[in-house]
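ok here's the first one, seq then struct tokens
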Amino acid sequence: MNSAASAPADGPLARFALRSAAWAERWFPDAYVFAALGVVIVAVAALGFGATPTATASAFGDGYWSLIPFTMQMAFVVIGGYVVATAPAVARVIDALARVPRSGRGAICYVGLISMLTSLLSWGFSLVFGGLLVRALARREDLDMDYRAAGAAAYLGLGAVWAMGLSSSAAQLQANPASMPPALLAITGVIPFSETILLWQSVVLTAALIAVSLLVCFVTAPRGASVRRARDFDGAEHFAIEEKNAATLPPRKRPGEWLEYSPLITLLLAAMSLGWLVVEFSAKPLVSAIANLNTYNFAFLTAGLLLHWRPRSFLNAVARAVPSTTGVLIQFPLYGGIASLLTAAKGSDGQTLAHHLSSVFVRVADTDTFTLVMGVYSAVLGFFVPSGGGKWIIEAPYVMQAANDLKVHLGWAVQVYNAAEALPNLINPFWMLPLLGVLGLKARDIVGFTFIQLLVHIPLVLGLLWLLGLTLSYHPPVMP
């Protein structure tokens, strides 16, 4: 019997995923083109509602640089995660984890599980760690693992459950009155974690999402001749091979390089950095401190500095990480422009496109259907404004007022937003960029697999949000 005849056959969902992947590889544009088309579509919609060309252009230009702090934060998520994970000690941990799976399918599910569990603690760590785990698994010649499907599994943390965990921007904001805009605080009051991410209903929803996502990973994983390894992708193989030469410092050649090879600078910088981190974590609750992206990135850079020990080793790791941030740096400004077009370009009636979108959904809702209507709306808007915290600031005032008016549990309304807002992440290149940079892939390479996840998640998420919401009763806002 020849090997082709003995190779395991792909199941129906796996074949559908492969067809979706093949379609995406042929027709799905580069993430930059996708973002640019988003600008055009939203601008045309704003003009259609009566916004003047001047107002539309001004809104786009004013918003273009509005995400620069967030852009740099995301770039440093990639750099910090890469620097830490490629340090010799941490790389050995990842390599040890990569020795656990015994099959390609098992490896893909393994990556998905680790990605989703770590995302409940920190979405940034999940994104980078998951990508580096895939790279370590890809180095195993004995593992028949599809690189595309593994990359899609590494993305599940951010594409499925991250907002149900401790790094949920909306839940964090609602639990901290000092961080909330006064107008929003007056509508919602303070909503503690016990009323959002720690509800038993939230735990059930999260567990169901993890279980179903892993099942989809298993049944859609290509096998046999359908498997594509890292070496089959231009630009990906050099990410997957072991970088022994890059990790080894060449001999010092000049006297001026002494400080670059000495740990003295590392110790001095690390002492100051650790001092600041001690003060930061002493002054704030652990969850609040680590949820701050600046603190998170600072901690990772400090750890990377110490783990590499010598400045030259640290700088070499940063240099290898920077190319992975290209997509982030050039595309995030376009999303800032989209957000501004939605919220700043006023039509002939003096209202913005975001207001018109919200009015359509809020107007058709009642107490029984509010969960479904809000879920659909949050998912649709999330595709155009892919920023959990920023979008919540935009969306919360009117949807939470509607929740009050319709007597819907306010904490569950936050969870409806969290679960539904994550849905478009599964096919939106915005959040894929750091992971794609780590893997050396393009969005088109993994979106065929994440699209299958989206098709399964939509009815699952909306159905459970509605069903579990029936078990909760309305409580008036609690003011601080």
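and now the second one, same deal
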Amino acid sequence: MSTLQEIAQSDDYGQFELKEVYQAAQLLLQEFQKTRTAPEKLVEIIEHLKKRLEGQAAYPLAILLESSKLGVEHQLQKDWNSPMKQRQLFLFESLYAQFRGKVPPTIWNQICLNYAEALIYVGRSLDGLNVLEQMTEAENDPSYERLDAERGWGLLFYSTFLRDKDAKGEALHLSRDLLRDGIEKITNANGRALYADRLKLAVKMLEEIGSIDLTGSYKPNFFEGRERDYRDWCAKHRLLLNDNNEVDPDGTMKIDTLNYRHVGGDKEYGRYLETFMDSIVSEFTGLRWNLFEALEQEPSAERNEQLKTVYRQTYTLFSKIAQFVSQYYKLEMTNPRAGLQRMWFEEEDPKKPLKPFIKDSKNGALKALFWLSKELFGYEQSAVQNVATVRSLLIRDQLERSFVQVITKKEEIAETGELRKHQMTQIELERLSQTTLFKARNALMYVGFAIGLEKK
């Protein structure tokens, strides 16, 4: 019987069981993580697994191995925006979009856990925490065992964006509790050790904050009737522009607290920025209410048009957020109409280097906005984009320039691809309108955090 090391060095992986080849690939990956020198066979064995698993439910496991390899390669780079990191996030986004509801819970949970971890590390803690909520309960699943502990890890990162001492302390208290209690659920020794180290960090950060009164900032919600239903819905779906929404969605004051108040000598410019931010927030809250109203209704042509409007107009928020960032950082863009996709680059050209304000920045929230823009509009260092990103932009363009038919019956599906791009299902319309507005909410939150960190 061959050892895993012998299997890993073999010239014919086809002679071995899939499970053995997969374990051998994991062994090579562990060697890479320890030595920081990629084993010669690592790429070869991953490519073999991808071909052998193609079309099977276990195919994502081979892509997760490739993503882990890219993660180690990225750590060896000096560039935080390396091609390896872009490729890794692209792969995670593709897995998450394409395999929802199509693979067993144990595989789906691996996708979610690894994707959330990658998002948290690039600053997108809001998005990472949301991905964790999509995990499916599965007995004796090593990935699901880590859910609570990973939530704690996400909240630890999230707390670094918070300026208010009590808000930061509340997030860290929950982070510590989730890490501490979550560790008890993890059966794997290495997993327990990993989160035990993270728990030590949470405890250290709490000690540095000092004592806080967790009840001191509590404010009751006086909303009633439909307004209360609306506010509860906003909190449940993490659509409040409120720092506390991720920490305590049930107990938080269900109001929007995000605003910009200028600090500095140029008061006229400050008033302009304050008004600009207020108008963006106002537009967002209007779209949020329209979405809530539409989702309350039974499916109808009128409801579909309302959802289309929410989806289409949400993209104008991304453009306005880009303009606000441009004004705040005084980017003096060559193309003043460049949006969230292009504002990061010299001359607003993705083929040119990043501008210093983002390239040299230590602001984690600003980088989170950068990475969110990649999911929305694509990665400049990638020749191929995520299918879900391409589809969402195509639908947006069709809504702007032509028409989109919402289909409810299988027989309504167009036979040609040219007509298909003018169609979407009822479920797809609902999902796109809600998830896109959620991303706009997160973009606004990251902007607020980035400005707060700049002021600090």
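notes on #2: The chain has 19 helices and two strands. Residues 258-454 form one domain.
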